């Protein structure tokens, strides 16, 4: 099924938010966005309404929709949600993982090591999302996977304050290495402990 104009507008506007092109200080009108995307205001308005429902934007009576920057309090709540769900997921994976699954995770870790070395935080964050999303996909519950994906994406929105420097990236990388090591051994309890430590680190970064 081909994507509708509303879907295209939703994807493009969301990308603009995540990339920092749209902020709470700079959010163009529906008409301006429509002109930029080459479509009418209707699909743009519908896309904005969806983004409001997902928490990426907020409705303002006099200004239309504005980017909803993530607050520290919301970020902590998201970490706590992720902690509960991701620990459950990793503890209940079918272990041991296959050689192919381990190789895919290792490739992500290797890529993250290279990105951390050069301080590419944007690409590292994308790879971090990919790593955790792949673990969720192995569990096989699509609703949990979608919930986690939406939660992780909020960290990429304006105001997100995690993995923004090299030491933080290296610490997150170490967490991924330890999680993968436990999964290779087929030790679900150790994998859960390492995921918990990984989430505690994320929470510490947010409140420090």
TrEMBL record:
Ion transport found in the keyword field: no
Coiled-coil intervals, chain numbering: none
Boundaries of every HTH gntR-type domain copy: 3-70
InterPro entries membership: GntR_C, TF_FadR/GntR_C, Tscrpt_reg_HTH_GntR, WH-like_DNA-bd_sf, WH_DNA-bd_sf
Top-rank lineage group of the source organism: Bacteria
Keywords on record: DNA-binding, Transcription, Transcription regulation
A GO term for molecular function: DNA-binding transcription factor activity
Transmembrane segments: none
Protein name according to UniProt: GntR family transcriptional regulator
Source species of the chain: Pyramidobacter porci
